[in-house]
Amino acid sequence: MSQVTPFYSLRGISKAFPGVKALDEVQLDLYPGEVMALIGENGAGKSTLVKTMTGIYQPDSGALYLAGETIKLPTPDAARRLGITAIHQETVLFDELSVTENIFTGHHLTRGLLKTLDWPAMRSQCIKILADIEAQIDPDILLKHLSIGQRHMVAIARALSFDAKVVILDEPTAALSIYETQELYKIVDKLKNAGCAIMFISHKFDEVFAIADRYTVFRDGCFINQGKIDSVNQAQLVTMMVGRTVDQVYPKESQPLGEQVLKVANFSHPTEFNDLSFELHAGEILGFYGLVGAGRTELMQAIYGVSNTSSGCIEIAGVAVSIHSPADAIKAGIVYVPEERQSQGVVLDLPIDQNITLPQLSQINNNGLLNPASEYALADEYASRLQVKAPDWHELVGNLSGGNQQKVVIAKWLATQPKVIILDEPTKGIDISSKAAVHSFMSELVKQGLAVIMVSSELPEVMGMSDRIIVMSEGLQVCDFNRADFNAEQIVSAASGGLNEKTIH
Amino acid sequence: MKKLFTSREALLCVLILIMTLSVGAIADDFLSISNLLSIYNDTSILIILALGQMLVIITRCIDLSVAANLALTGMVIAMINSSFPDFPVPLLVLFGALLGLWMGMINGLLVWKLGIPAIVVTLGTMSIYRGIIFLLSDGAWVNAHEMSKVFMQIPRSTFIGIALLSWVSIITVAVFYYFTRYARTGREIYAAGNSPTAAFYTGIDVGRSQFIAFSLSGLLAGLCGYLWVSRYAVAYVDVAAGFELQVISACVIGGISIMGGIGTVAGCVLGAIFLGVINNALPVIGVSPFWQMAISGGVIVLAVIASSKAEQKSGRIILKSAGLAPSR
User: Fold this and answer.
1) CA of B272 to nearest chain A CA: how many angstroms apart?
2) What angle do CA B308, B18, B259 make, to 5 degrees?
3) Tens of pLDDT, residues B220-252
4) Searching chain B, which residue's CA lies closest to the CA of residue A475?
5) CA distance A500 to A477
6) CB distance from A123 to chain B under 8 Å?
7) Is the CB of residue A192 less than 8 Å from the CB of residue A34?
8) Which of residues 188 through 227 in chain B touch A, CB cutoff 8 A?
9) Helix or strand (DSSP H, E) at A138
């Protein structure tokens, strides 16, 4: 095969968000008639890259080339006009519109002078495209009545309804059944034969090796390597993905395990997770690792009483408790530091002290009136302990940096003197020094006998801080690792569905 | 494909029918063709305004200024008519519609370009538009004897036995049916309201869709300004005071989701007719006007409960077994 020139190329692309550099001088090449697999851990910058390639984000620096010419993509529409189309990880479609309309919104077919929408024509084209991809979906049904897998098929049908030259598939198989995945492979083959340049993002190595021609590896927003897929094996790819050694800077101090504090048994939800059981001891950090959308946050929110389970029970220190709301959970001694800090963790427009005392206004209550002095004192005790950086505790939380906001959330919960603290992606989007502060504080908490659950998508963090790791995949508990048995490759494989049904001790 | 009537609309039809027939059983005259036509004629302005409001609500906004817009255009053209009785009325109507359109565009621009929440924008412009009526009229009324004959006669003249006012609403309904079903802009309004993120990804300018909805709502309010003033033969500061709430009620009863993205022309029209029938039926069977407000209020609450039940979500679908189940 002769050397082909890339059809769509990126050079020196950087993109920063407040506190995080999502992409740092990355490059990428897509070749016509070939599938390029983009590989990287959660947080490697893959989704940011997809959004940059399709005009949703504007890069801070760097250039995009299509067929050798520099292009600018000010809007998603501009990208679509150039034939660049993406199927996003979270399907972005319209629940209340029909399948046909979802496929044609933005490029409706029209007829006549009045540009009247030609529904019969759109409907018959829709049926044709759906038949092409062998998806048995009623073109008239509203999207909200479809399963996630079927929605993905609609998203794919939508991409095919354009004259696409570049097709980006961002984890398209995450929600598909095995049968649907096979169908997807056929579609990808069709696109290849039609000369499309395809980018395929997946965490599943068997898929990557099955359909990709080339690979590119990203880590922490940086380009690491690229090449032909038949020149590497899975172990080499994992090494490139994981990269650094994990013994870095984690202030991990193993504590002797105390008594069992929390026991979760046979926890199930109708659609989100099934049959999860684990125990947690005082002085222990239990890590939950998995891909984005594996159901970890949903599980934690169920434990915290945000959503209701279909079966299962919780015991606190050996006593069964029933938790139907966050208030129940707080009373039982379970607190939750959410992933969505700004919307769920703090009240941005309230000062630090009022944020911290929010869960226990009864404590600073004097004959029915709140006592600002004791409020400030209570806040002072915990905010100082966490070294929140602010002029004083009257500062609005919205004016603090992400890391200091996170400290306020943790201070708030510590003031309630909990037994179990659940940290959901505790260091997501915060700067390095605050990250280190959160980590060392976690060590201090367990030293004082608290039990910590940490959900994290960052492998080094979860391996660096946890005493035990439970890996979840597609709503199921795939396997457990004790600290002595931590192995980056095995954990990543398990999260990607490679070690199903097998438990390692 | 032909889903002209969803369950909500069928339910409204049945309710309207039951109400009409049971009131007819008490008072025979109620079911006469002429009375039914006059109820529809009475409801025409509400129908027209509700259609404009529907578009605005579908884009996740709200237009509180419609009644004030109506009152201001009504006052302006009534004053022009009383000062220049020879100015051709059709041109005057066109001028009123354009004036309304212009006020609607102001709402839309503030929402689109400055990103101010619609409820705040229209709360402000509502007071401003009412205030301008004061400034123009000094609080004085324009009464029937000051208006020209043609000015007052046009909405009352009939065509195939139906008043022109009713015809205007029928034509508006037809145009809106076409617009929401067969015009790209109309469909984009639904998409923008249903999921602004997805709409943005699809290349739809959500703010522009909101602007268009506000503009059309303003245009219709301007048109209704003439219809109202000539029908009731009087223009003053408090014309149609509080009418915006009836308009919004008609939308909510008709199944237009206040969360945006959901609603049909048929539902909207039925919602307005439902209110029109209540307003006309209750006096006939001797129910006090105080009850009218309480009854329509109760209906609104029931309508909202019905929609929120339908919109409840049951969590994400992560488990494969769960993802497969509903596909059957």
Assistant:
1) 23
2) 20
3) 999 999 999 999 989 888 888 889 999 999 999
4) B319
5) 9
6) yes
7) yes
8) 188, 190-191, 194-195, 197-204
9) none
Residue of B nearest to A149 (CA): B323
| Cβ-defined contact of B183 to A116 (cutoff 8 Å) | yes
Q: In 3D, which of A91, A100, A185 has the Cα closest to residue A134?
A: A185
Q: In angstroms, what is the C-alpha Rg of chain A?
A: 25
Confidence band for A498, pLDDT divided at 50, 70 and 90: low
Contacting A residues, span 265-324, partner chain B, CB-CB under 8 Å:
269-274, 293-295, 298, 307
Q: Shortest CB distance from A106 goes to which of B204, B315, B326?
A: B204
CA distance B103 to A467: 65
The answer, for A146 touching chain B at a CB cutoff of 8 Å, is yes
Parse chain A into domains and list their residue ranges: 8-242, 248-333+418-505, 350-417
Name which of B56, B212, B184, B180 is nearest A105 in CA terms: B184
> Mind telling me how many Å the CA of B327 is from chain A's nearest CA?
6
Q: Quote the CATH superfamily of domain A8-242.
A: P-loop containing nucleotide triphosphate hydrolases (3.40.50.300)
Per-domain residue ranges for chain B?
A: 7-306
pTM above 0.90, yes or no: no
pLDDT at position A270 is 86
Tokens at A36, concatenated: 């390029």
Query: Any idea which residue has 């991809």 for tokens?
Result: A133
CB-based burial label for B165 (10 Å; 0-12, 13-18, 19+): buried
The residue among A456 and B3 whose pLDDT is bigger is A456
For residue A487, give every residue at least 6 positions away whose Cβ sits within 8 Å of its Cβ, in sequence order, or none.
A481
Query: How many angstroms separate the Cα of A113 from the Cα of each of A116, A124, A277, A327, B183?
Result: 8, 22, 64, 61, 12
Between CA A480 and CA A505 the distance in angstroms is 7
Residue A295 has what DSSP assignment? S
Cβ–Cβ under 8 Å, residues A24 and A14: yes
B317 → closest Cβ in A75, A271, A476: A271
pLDDT digits (tens, 9 = 90+) for A156-205: 888 888 878 899 988 777 666 666 777 788 888 888 888 889 999 887 77
What dotted CATH number matches A248-333+418-505? Answer: 3.40.50.300
Taking an 8 Å cut-off on Cβ atoms, the answer to whether A145 and B320 are in contact is no
Domain made up of B7-306: CATH architecture: Orthogonal Bundle (1.10)
ipTM of the complex: 0.80
Reduced to 3 states, what is the DSSP secondary structure of residue B226? helix
| Chain B contact probe: residue of A87, A105, A119, A274 with most B CBs at under 10 A | A105
Residues 6+ apart with CB under 8 A from A89: A47, A170, A171, A174, A201, A292, A293
